[in-house]
Amino acid sequence: MAEAPALLEVHDVSKSFGAVAAVQGVSFPLYPGEAHALVGENGAGKSTIVKMLAGVHRPDTGTLRVNGTDVQFHGPADAKAAGIAVIYQEPTLFPDLSVAENIAMGNPPLTRLRQIDRKAMNANAARLFTRLGVQIDPTRPARGLSIADQQLVEIAKALSSEARILIMDEPTAALSGVEVERLFAVARALRDEGAAIMFISHRFEEITALCQRVTIMRDGRHVATEAVAEMTVDDMIRRMVGRDLSALFPKQDVDPGPVVLEVDGLSRDGVFSDISFAVRAGEIVALAGLVGSGRSEVMQAVFGVDRYDSGGVRFHGRRLSAGSPRAAMAAGMALVPEDRRQQGLIMELSVERNVTLPRARQLSRLGLLIGSAERDEAARWTQRLQTKLGRLSDQVGTLSGGNQQKVVLAKWLATTPTLLILDEPTRGIDVGTKAEVHRLMSSLAADGMAIVMVSSELPEVLGMADRIVVLREGRVAAEISRADATEEAVMYAAMGQVHS
Amino acid sequence: MTVAPSRSTPTDAPLGTPARGRRSALGVLLKTRELGIVLALALLVGYTAVNHPRFLSGQSIRDILLNTAILAVMASGQAVVVITRNIDLSVGSVLGLSAFTVATVMSDHHGLPMIVALALGLAIGAVCGLLNGVLVRYGRVPALVVTLGTLYAYQGFTYSWAGGRQVNADTLPPHFLNFAGGSILGVPWLVLIALIVVGGVSLVMRNYRVGRELYAMGSSPQAAELAGIRVARNTLGAFLLSGALAGLAGVLFAARFGTVDASAGTGYELNVVAAVVVGGVAVFGGSGSVWGAGLGALLLTVIGSALAVLDINQFWQQAIVGALILLAIGADRIVAVRIARGLRKRDSHV
Fold it and tell me: Which residues of B touch A182 (CB under 8 A)?
């Protein structure tokens, strides 16, 4: 593998945005026939590397070499011409155009009259899909394709442009297990045909399953490039964060206080039925279960975002009116939603505006928002959460994923809730930030806050929760205390098996 | 994987298997937009003709087609701009500027052939359109704002130049005025030009690379940049085309009506945008067709004529046009909502 000349070489590359050095002196080679993982915390500079290889950004210093010759990309078209194809986390298809057109965009087959040869274009797409072993109708519009299918179309696009270097930026973040397997089968086949694949992911099991070598980045610098086989996951994590993460789930034991939330026989036709559980002050209760078991739906009904048909919610002993998030917030509830991009943050607004949004009324005088009051409040919470940001007036969209999640948390913590509902609090964020979020949850609980956490990550559930309510097909399958909680116990309950 | 029985599990379905029923219904809805317009046209013409047979007389049809021609020429250019997720509100003012300039030049130089008049109108419009495109692309200002500004700027220029002056038909050379009435093989020149423009632009948008790139730009601007499409060149091209066709429409306007003052074309932009939207071009770009926009122009013109023939108050004409626009946008919305719902169902499993 290492004897062949490198297909791509990143050589001593640096890139700054304003005063922030995103990438500093990073070098690594990419060989034909290898899948190469690029890992690092959010904000370590991975995305900047990707964008430089894609021709979106140009390095300030250092060079990129393709097949041993220096290249300068003036735009994405140049990178494409050099044989580099990038598959972004969020696919970049044209929803209104047909799948075949999406694949052919940039270099469509033409007839003698220079018209687009639709027949050849569709045949070409069909041929690529056959080669990838998938069934997608080339003539259908790209709109409505699942994320997994969109990524396969992106790969077909890369194949059609004869790309030899395939860069995949967190392609599996939104895929199910079956879909990940399908994607990996395709990636392995390409790799074995001599393409070079750069794979960016936060999931270590995927890295070990697909990649031969791994490059680790931290704070914009290159830490190591080594064979995956010679590293343990712990090694990788330690190098990514530069510290040990022995206390990954540091829930402190707390004497639970009075009951804060009582959910009694909550039902909604066809979604969940007869859900009952209670949460006390200082407790972290996890709602576990398989995807589709109704976890998020239950909590959204409790918070009043969704309706419920029967049953009731008591909060601090008082009945909470249904279907009113406003009433829930006024009573001291906060819900941090799962999809921070769409539900949690307004990407175009500044950090401070986002943080103070739910409290705009309290912070205003005579109906006018006072800038300084907003800033003080935002500064206090972002500091407590150790959010890395330039200025409070920056747009939230410019922050990394982990820091965005902290801003969402800050936003709701600023309302000083007595019950905090967290839906997948650490999805898509890196291990370092994850540990910080866990530490924060623990300290909030120690201060007497009641926390309900919806999570798909079993280790997180087992580590953080005082009690685990397992849902299955919209019903409570089991309630397991911390002492009895094991991975098996939760999984058996979630899958409806009897623990033998 | 166990999932509540009331939900489907698309994640477990084989990849790429489309949900046939919903999607095909959707496809029909999308594809038949032009069919819907033809149907509406047929109904309207049929009803009017039954009640007033003279509605289908040669003269009546000729008038409708002549009136449609100018609108259809401008709608073709506008459709291209809207497909790229932009809008050009300045077309009415460009028409006015072109019409007044060409009429003035022709009345001063009777010897100039018609082709020069057409070229002059196209050139004036192209310059105006190019300026719009430059401001939109390099000024990074939304097209709505830019072209609203140039709407007033171009109009103001025409007014300050023309003052209260008016070019009358009797000062224009006869070959210029005859152009509007003239025909070849029974087809009026104006209609022929409109057909060539609508057909030509449709063909380019449908079958040529640059056309598909324009659709792509409107469908997803970010993806267009990442795909290496020459977005700047194409944006300028779209606005240039819209301006040039508005300039051409100005020449046709001057030739058809003969009397031109600075107010020519005022308010036309709204008719043009209405024709495009009713014709099925999505205001968010990426979909619709140029010939659909041409049909939209025809439909709006027929509505105007039919209501006049049926002796219905002019007020109703505007109300009906308004309702049609809402209907067209409503249809887009319904499609979008259904797609979003379909996607959400899928995403809730991952």
Answer: 15
The string of DSSP letters for B104-126 reads HHHHH-TT--HHHHHHHHHHHHH
- Are residue A282 and residue A384 in the same domain, yes or no? yes
Task: Identify the residue whose tokens are 């100018």.
Answer: B70
Let me know if residue B5 belongs to a domain: no
Closest CA to A183 of A202, A215, A206, A165: A206
Given an 8 Å threshold on Cβ–Cβ distance, is A105 in contact with B212?
yes
Is B281 within 8 Å of B82 (Cβ atoms)?
yes
pLDDT digits (tens, 9 = 90+) for B26-71: 455 555 677 878 888 888 899 899 988 888 888 888 889 999 999 9
Total number of domains in chain B: 1
- Measured between beta carbons, the chain B residues lying within 8 angstroms of A97 are 212, 215-216, 219, 286
Closest CB to B15 among A114, A149, A291: A149
The answer to whether B267 contacts chain A (CB < 8 Å) is no
Q: Which of A7, A5, A9, A3 is nearest to A190 (CA)?
A: A7
- The B residues from 20 to 39 touching A (CB cutoff 8 Å) are 23
Q: Which residue segment(s) compose the domain that B177 sits in?
A: 40-332
Q: What is the CATH number of the domain that holds A12?
A: 3.40.50.300
Question: Looking at CA atoms only, how far is residue A236 from chain B in angstroms?
Answer: 26
- Chain A residues in contact with B286 (beta carbon < 8 A): 94-97
Does residue A291 sit at the B interface (CB-CB below 8 Å)? yes
Query: E strands along B10-129, which residues?
Result: none
What is the pLDDT averaged over residues A336-353?
74
Count: domains in chain A: 2
Q: How far is CA A65 from CA A5, A155, A168, A213, B179, in A?
A: 11, 23, 19, 19, 63
Across the interface, whether the CB atoms of B224 and A96 are under 8 A apart is answered: no
Considering the domain boundaries, does residue B303 fall inside one?
yes
Residue B119: give its domain's CATH number: 1.10.3470
Q: Give the domain extent around A34.
A: 8-93+145-241
Query: Is A42's pLDDT higher than 90?
Result: no
Structural contact between residues A228 and A208, judged by C-beta atoms closer than 8 angstroms: yes
Q: Do both A228 and A279 map to the same domain?
A: no
Check whether residue A270 and residue A171 sit in a common domain: no
Q: Same domain for A286 and A376? A: yes
> A176 vs B349: CB contact, 8 Å cut-off?
yes
Q: Is residue A202 part of a domain?
A: yes
| Domain stop point among A208, A241, A274 | A241
Residue at A110 is within a domain: no
- So what's the pLDDT on residue A134? 84
Q: How many CB pairs under 8 A join A and B?
A: 135
The CA distance from A356 to B321, in Å, is 45
Is pLDDT at B218 greater than 70 in this prediction?
A: yes
Residues of A in Cβ contact (< 8 Å) with B223: 92-94
Angle CA A226–A231–A234, to nearest 5: 130
Looking at the structure, tell me whether residues A164 and A296 fall in a common domain: no
Domain presence at residue A122: no
CB < 8 Å to B225, chain A: 76
